[in-house]
């Protein structure tokens, strides 16, 4: 059994706005095992990035964690002082943010920025830290790293900047790497290279990866387990095989149907999820997906309990309380509201 590295239990995060409290994360629970790659998927506004920032202790006013706990190797991260966070963040837990250009200082060289992290957490001298930065750039596939460490972020392409961020995150051999949309806005070739890099990381080290994405194709390539979020809540969790071949929630099914497919010479028409995500300032009662779900019925006005569909496979849906009801609903294409 995989040793549990990260445990998130009933996490709730709200942001104060002029219109009221935006309940961005509403009772999220999941875990990540040592050396495991777990994907969090869902459309924009589902709470994925906020969950990641809460884990990293980066929720600042007007946002706040209102409930739940985040345990890292059994230690409650919410009880850490700022000084303890500085020792942990970037060292044992590292994060690659969505936009590498805004994460890098435009007036400092790549080598200076990487060496700063290495010196702070590993206690190396300036010369040794630069040498380590060169080696890390080499490991992530950047050519001529000795020359590149002397350059500035604007001299790197988007894909290369993302590689720099991954190299920086890995320079202290973290136990957990959180990657927030690491392939967004990259062309297909560079995206494939970044994904290969993440797969190599999994094969060559014990680093666990929490991958935040909206792209199910990315999840299929690199993840072993998947957490599906919608409306600030976990809709379904399971292995990649569970999510793709034993779907247990209508929202997950909607995500899968909206992915372009081509089988042989036949092209399938995309099936969009009708409607819009819920307003989290005034979230609807019951299942958050109810207004967009083709299988919704009266009972969906109440929030269902999380149902176990198999070992490690769970779903927040009334239909799965009775498996035959779910199978019939999926076969019929909807029961109507």
UniProtKB/TrEMBL annotation:
It is a peripheral membrane protein. It is found in: Cell membrane. CDD domains: ABC_NikE_OppD_transporters. It comes from the Bacteria. Transmembrane segments: none annotated. Pfam families: ABC_tran (PF00005), oligo_HPY (PF08352). Its main location: membrane. Residues 6-256 form the ABC transporter domain. GO terms for molecular function: ATP binding. Keywords: ATP-binding, Cell membrane, Membrane, Nucleotide-binding, Transport. Belongs to the ABC transporter superfamily. This is ABC transporter ATP-binding protein. It comes from Paenibacillus dokdonensis.
């Amino acid at each position: 059994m995989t040793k549990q590295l990260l445990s998130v239990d009933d996490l709730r995060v709200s942001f104060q706005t002029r219109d009221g409290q935006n309940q961005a994360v509403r009772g999220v629970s999941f875990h990540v095992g040592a050396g495991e790659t777990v994907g969090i998927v869902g459309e924009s506004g589902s709470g994925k990035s906020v969950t990641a920032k809460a884990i990293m202790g980066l929720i600042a006013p007007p946002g706040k964690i209102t409930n739940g706990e985040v345990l890292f190797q059994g230690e409650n991260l919410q009880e850490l002082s700022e000084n303890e966070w500085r020792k942990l963040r970037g060292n044992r837990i590292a994060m690659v943010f969505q936009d590498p250009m805004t994460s890098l200082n435009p007036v400092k060289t790549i080598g200076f920025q990487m060496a700063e992290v290495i010196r702070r957490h590993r206690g190396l001298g300036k010369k040794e830290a630069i040498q380590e930065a060169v080696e890390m750039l080499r490991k992530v596939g950047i050519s001529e790293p000795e020359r590149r460490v002397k350059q500035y972020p604007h001299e790197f392409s988007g894909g290369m900047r993302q590689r720099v961020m991954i190299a920086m995150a890995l320079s202290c051999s973290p136990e957990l790497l959180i990657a927030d949309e690491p392939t967004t806005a990259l062309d297909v070739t560079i995206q494939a290279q970044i994904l290969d890099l993440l797969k190599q990381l999994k094969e060559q080290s014990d680093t666990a990866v929490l991958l935040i994405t909206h792209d199910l194709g990315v999840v299929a390539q690199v993840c072993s387990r998947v957490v599906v979020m919608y409306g600030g809540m976990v809709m379904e969790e399971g292995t990649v095989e569970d999510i793709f071949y034993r779907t247990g929630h209508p929202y997950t099914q909607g995500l899968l149907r909206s992915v372009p497919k081509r089988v042989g010479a036949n092209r399938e028409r995309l099936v969009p999820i009708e409607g819009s995500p819920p307003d989290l300032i005034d979230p609807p009662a019951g299942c958050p997906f109810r207004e967009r779900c083709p299988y919704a019925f009266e009972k969906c006005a109440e929030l269902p309990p999380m149902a176990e569909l198999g070992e490690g496979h769970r779903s927040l849906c009334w239909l799965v309380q009775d498996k035959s009801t779910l199978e019939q609903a999926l076969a019929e294409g909807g029961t109507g509201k």
